[in-house]
Automatic annotation (TrEMBL):
Gene source species: Thraustotheca clavata
Annotated binding of Mg(2+), by residue: S84, D301, D303, D305
Catalytic reaction(s) noted: N-acetyl-alpha-D-glucosamine 1-phosphate = N-acetyl-D-glucosamine 6-phosphate
Keyword Isomerase assigned: yes
Cofactor or coenzyme needed: Mg(2+)
Protein name, UniProt field: Phosphoacetylglucosamine mutase
Broad class of enzyme this protein falls into: isomerase
Cofactor binding summary note: Binds 1 Mg(2+) ion per subunit.
Active-site residues annotated for this sequence: S84
Pathway: Nucleotide-sugar biosynthesis; UDP-N-acetyl-alpha-D-glucosamine biosynthesis; N-acetyl-alpha-D-glucosamine 1-phosphate from alpha-D-glucosamine 6-phosphate (route I): step 2/2
Domain Alpha-D-phosphohexomutase alpha/beta/alpha stretches: 118-188
Gene Ontology process terms (BP): carbohydrate metabolic process; UDP-N-acetylglucosamine biosynthetic process
Span of domain Phosphoacetylglucosamine mutase AMG1: 200-308, 322-462
InterPro entries: A-D-PHexomutase_a/b/a-I, A-D-PHexomutase_a/b/a-I/II/III, A-D-PHexomutase_C, A-D-PHexomutase_C_sf, AMG1_II, AMG1_III, PAGM
Length: 571
């Protein structure tokens, strides 16, 4: 095959060393730390995550990979420095793709090959990626970087920047941002419709949210809004507190926000935040039964891409409103607007859940004629499945989720604008387009999701208890079991039933069958921890607890449990 100078193939060097001889000097300065030992780093559900001390080389190399991805796509890509809801000494990388979503799954293998390569093999891996993906290395590579508040984050983002510069990339470092903000910037800058607009910056992000919130609450008496009680936000001592303070300032009297658990007053994610509230089923530190009865509250996680709501009722009992309840609230809004606009048969609406969704949420959606689909655990699977619908809502029970509207739907709605005369329809249309503006289309976003929840509570004139009452969660229990090799546990595609080992499959089936009506249980190997997770639901809390423990014992017995059989729950 003949190539001309203009052909991209012409710029593919036999080795990257031809272009960047300095690599030979620079790579050994960031070689894999001895402490990493034989450990294989894996690009898990949302990226690499480990103790920050062993991630230096990984960050340096991921800076390079982000640049290669950018050169390949001819668009901006990104790198977020965060370990989300994990402990303060940890850190991690989340790579952002050109559409503002997560890194394409087809590139995760490159991330792993690079991160795990011995120093002398890094050039070889880079060359393979460049050759396989036919990357013109002379192309411009542009990446955006941001980081959370961890002590290690600044240094690690600097290493990523160095790696990126080494491969000739241009780097724009946004400093402290939430993960969804970085996704938003990249989506906006790469989107031909938005890239020259006002929303493609940090200030633009707040403007976009505040303007959409204003539109969604415009039908409400402004005095009533000003008098409304505040939303108390547990920020997990993370970056969400800093960014939310800026957003709250712009919201002014439209919504009063009280920020708790800031980076200054405690350890990141320790006994607080969305993961703690949802997994341990405990109110966050900084909130108390006596002082906070009746207050509407929510918890973010360490990088503010998850949110769950909660409150103490007048009796002092604590209630959690998880991702399922948020999805149901959102689904109700879109179903109603589509009905008013007589578009329900033309525009498909669906909610994507995982096996962890409470059975009562499923029943609620079905009773309200909303389509429901199941995806494997992990937002990248949910996101993918949600694309089957014109308006796809996905939420994991842990509070990570969003709503995506297809471009053709947005176009269709904009075209309708000039044709409508009916006031009700005009209002519905304005609402649905404002919701599209408010909800982060790139990725789950705690700040945008929380504002949408608040807008809908205001529209319904509901208290948090009234929203909670749309359905009653079936009692459930989660726990986990350590076994020698968790890969021996196999499940069906949707993860609701075990398929191996055979004895475990039979044991779970028989335990569920004898656990009463509406009982359900499943086991699956965790994708992020060295354990098998157990989930059980039943008519009563005692029933769910008993079923979870019996299933945990069955995992221990039939799948090679380590140590004593389980006798208590592990969060
Ligand atoms: C039950 C549960 O909450 N699982 C979490 C957890 O995955 P596991 O594969 O269950 O470890 O971490 C994922 C990444 O944050 C998140 O997407 C998922 O929902
Ligand atoms: Mg997170």
């Amino acid at each position: 095959m003949s190539t001309t100078a203009a052909s991209p193939a012409a710029a593919i060097p036999a080795s990257i060393l031809e272009k960047v001889p300095r690599l030979m000097d620079e790579l050994p300065k960031h070689s894999k730390p001895a402490a990493l030992g034989d450990k294989v780093l894996s690009y898990g559900t949302a990226g690499f995550r480990d103790n920050a001390d062993i991630l230096g080389s990984t960050f340096h190399r991921m800076g390079m990979l982000a640049v290669l991805r950018s050169k390949k796509e001819h668009k901006i890509t990104g790198l977020m420095v965060t370990a989300s809801h994990n402990a303060a000494p940890d850190n991690g990388v989340k790579l952002v793709d050109a559409d503002g979503g997560m890194l394409a799954q087809s590139w995760e293998k490159y991330a792993m090959q690079l991160a795990n390569a011995n120093t002398e093999k890094v050039v070889e891996v880079l060359d393979t990626i460049i050759r396989t993906e036919k990357i013109d290395v002379d192309q411009t590579g542009n990446i955006f970087i941001a980081r959370d508040t961890r002590v290690s984050s600044e240094h690690l983002s600097e290493l990523a920047r160095e790696g990126a510069l080494l491969l000739g990339g241009n780097v724009l470092d946004f400093g402290l941002q939430t993960t969804p903000q970085l996704h938003h910037f990249i989506r906006m800058w790469n989107h031909e419709q938005y890239n020259k607009g006002d929303w493609a910056s940090e200030a633009g992000y707040y403007n976009m949210l505040v303007d959409a919130f204003k539109q969604l609450t415009s039908g409400v008496d402004q005095k009533k809004l000003e008098m409304r009680t505040p939303l108390y936000v547990d920020c997990a001592h993370g970056v969400g507190a800093i960014q939310l303070a800026k957003l709250a300032k712009d919201l002014g009297d439209m919504l009063h926000i009280e920020i708790r658990n800031t980076p200054e007053d405690g350890e990141l994610n320790f006994e607080c935040g969305a993961e703690h509230a949802q997994k341990a089923r405990k109110h966050p530190a900084g909130f108390s039964r006596d002082a906070d009865r009746g207050k509407r509250a929510c918890s973010l996680d360490g990088d503010a891409d998850r949110v769950v709501f909660h409150y103490f009722d007048v009796q002092g009992e604590w209630h959690l409103l998880d991702g399922d309840k948020i999805a149901c609230l959102f689904a109700g809004f879109f179903a109603e607007k589509l009905k008013t606009l007589e578009l329900a048969s033309e525009i498909s609406l669906g909610v994507v859940q995982t096996a962890y969704a409470n059975g009562a949420a499923y029943n609620y959606l079905k009773a309200n004629n909303v389509q429901v689909a199941m995806a494997k655990t992990g937002v990248k699977y949910c996101h993918h499945k949600a694309l089957d619908y014109d308006i796809g809502i996905y939420f994991e029970a842990n509070g990570h989720g969003t709503v995506m509207m297809k471009d053709h739907v947005v176009d269709r709605l904009h075209k309708m604008e000039s044709t409508l005369t009916d006031e009700k329809k005009k209002y519905a249309l304005a609402n649905i387009t404002a919701a599209h503006q408010l909800i982060n289309q790139a990725v789950g976003d705690a700040l945008s999701d929380a504002l949408f929840v608040e807008a809908l509570l205001i529209q319904h004139d509901w208290s948090i208890a009234q929203w909670d009452a749309i359905y009653q969660d079936l009692p459930s229990r989660q726990t986990k079991v350590k076994i020698a090799d968790r890969t021996v546990v196999k499940t069906t595609e949707d993860e609701t039933a075990a398929t191996a080992p055979e004895a475990l499959k039979a044991a779970v089936e028989s335990l569920v069958a004898s656990a009463g009506p509406n009982a359900r249980a499943f086991v699956r190997p965790s994708g992020t921890e060295d354990a098998v997770r157990v989930y059980a639901e039943a008519e009563t809390q005692e029933g769910a607890d008993a079923l979870a423990l019996a299933v945990a014992k069955a995992v221990h017995e039939h799948a090679g449990g380590i140590g004593d059989a389980p006798s208590a729950f592990v969060a």
